[in-house]
Amino acid sequence: MALRLHSTDEPPAEPPHQIRASWCTCHPLQAIPERVGKRGVSAYLEKAAQRQIERNNLDELIADFDKVHGPAGPEAVAAKRAGASNAGAPA
C-alpha cells in the first residue's frame, strides 16, 4: 500500500482507493449500515478513522505541552471553561 502525503490543501489528482477487507464481530461495526446504509459505510469509516487520528494527534500535543509546562490544575481548567462559556455572551 502506498501512502501519499501532501503538503498543500489541494487534494491529490487521483484519490488513492484500495479495497480492504476486515472482519469484526463487534456490535458497533454491525450498527453502522443501519445508521448510514450499505453505500455509506466506507465514508463513515473513513471519517471515523480521521477523527481518531486527530484525537491521537491532539493527545500527543497535550502530552508534549504537559512535559514542558506541567499539567493544568483543576482551578486553571475551571477558569478557562468559565471564560470560554462567557466569550459569546453580550457585554
Characteristics:
disordered N terminus, mainly alpha, 3 helices, 91 residues, elongated
Describe the structure in your own words:
The chain has 91 residues and is mainly α. The protein has a domain of 56 residues. The chain has three helices and no strands. It is elongated.
Termini Cα gap: 55 Å
Label the structural class. Answer: mainly alpha
Q: How many whole angstroms does the radius of gyration measure?
A: 20 Å
Report the sheet with the most strands, covering strand number, pairing sense and barrel closure: none
Unreliable spans:
1-6
Mean pLDDT: 81
Instruction: Give the overall shape.
Output: elongated
Count of individual helical segments: 3
Spell out the helices and strands N to C: HHH
The oligomerization state is single chain
**What helical percentage do the residues reach?**
55-70%
Beta strands, count: 0
Beta-strand percent range = under 5%
What's the structural blueprint in terms of helices and strands?
Blueprint: H1 27-36, H2 41-69, H3 74-86
Short characterization:
The protein is an all-alpha fold.
